[in-house]
Amino acid sequence: MSFISIIKGKILSIVTSVSLMLKAFKKIYRHGGYTIVNISSIQYGQVLKGRKIVVTGGGAGIGFNIAKRCLEEGASVVITGRSENKLREACKQLNSGLLQPLVWDISEVSEIHKGLEKATFLLGGDIDILINNAGVLDTTPFPYITEQIWDKIYATNSKGLFFLTQTLCEKWMICRNNSLKKIINISSQGGFVGATYPYRMTKWDVAGLTQGLGIKLAQHGIIVNGIAPGIIATDMQPGFLHQKENVFITENPLQRIGLPEEIAELAIFLMSDSANFIVGQTIVCDGGYSIK
Ligand SMILES: NC(=O)c1ccc[n+]([C@@H]2O[C@H](COP(=O)([O-])OP(=O)(O)OC[C@H]3O[C@@H](n4cnc5c(N)ncnc54)[C@H](OP(=O)(O)O)[C@@H]3O)[C@@H](O)[C@H]2O)c1
């Protein structure tokens, strides 16, 4: 290579570096923005170390399994529900010093402030993650829905979830610190197919709210995502099943019922720092039901 072409190469690389530097300065000068990213790989066993988490409806089913995995990943957890017995039984089963029960009906909007204060006290500090999991089901078909059924389902699945989320986010936005906050909303496969009864309609609400708040709150350091489970073996579904039992069903392409443990694994991933670039998404986990 000639001396001239070496000099040309050097000049080109200096010009490229200077232009990249100018572009970077322009970004900061014009938009005030400076962002760096650290890639986080999942290290199971300490994914949620030190995090303070509230799981609504954590006394049974999907919520119970999410709480269990949160504890295994090092978090402090408050599980809520209306039945004291259910919560007591869950705490006995999980047997962890990092777990606290809180009797709290989230459909009572006037109790939300008090509920959040109690949860914060039990956790010994600010909540980092909210799992909006509590839900009730009624499958009375159209055209037999009564106003009472509508109100009962909406009170927990939509109204309660909304006001709890709004109250907590207001607190987070006022007292912003450096830690990233997260919300995981539990929707349903029913939120991704046509809806003719209130349960499914509330699950559309939840997926829509997840998308809307995902956009609105990202700039405040709050990441909102959701999970839409398919038919999962919990008390909500007839025929409670466990791992290694016959889980065959014909409703989805995978031809099997899902297990609450599978939803819990997805929840842990979404709560982890490895999912920090996912915003406003509801991840459908339904054996293919909603796309069949
Ligand atoms: N299982 C499925 O096939 C399936 C499918 C799609 C979506 N999901 C959704 O997944 C979530 C969990 O359901 P799951 O299957 O685990 O049902 P689950 O076993 O019946 O558990 C629901 C939990 O929510 C609590 N809860 C209900 N109303 C509440 C309220 N007003 N305030 C506080 N807690 C309340 C219940 O406790 P208390 O009775 O003590 O209040 C219970 O612990 C729900 O949002 C459900 O819609 C479930």
Describe the protein.
It is a single chain. The chain has 292 residues and is α/β, with parallel strands linked by helices. The chain has two domains: 36 residues; 251 residues, Rossmann fold. It is built from seven helices and seven strands. Helix 2 crosses helix 7 and helix 5 packs parallel to helix 6. The N and C termini lie far apart (62 Å). The protein binds NADP nicotinamide-adenine-dinucleotide phosphate. The site of NADP nicotinamide-adenine-dinucleotide phosphate (NAP) has 30 residues, from helix 2, strand 2 and helix 5. NADP nicotinamide-adenine-dinucleotide phosphate binds next to helix 2, strand 2 and helix 5.
Question: How are the secondary structure elements laid out?
Answer:
Blueprint: H1 3-31, E1 52-55, H2 61-72, E2 76-81, H3 84-94, E3 99-103, H4 112-123, E4 129-132, H5 147-174, E5 181-186, H6 198-218, E6 222-229, H7 260-271, E7 282-285
Parallel strand pairs: 1-2, 1-4, 2-3, 4-5, 5-6, 6-7
Helix pairs in contact: 2-7, 5-6
The structure holds NADP nicotinamide-adenine-dinucleotide phosphate.
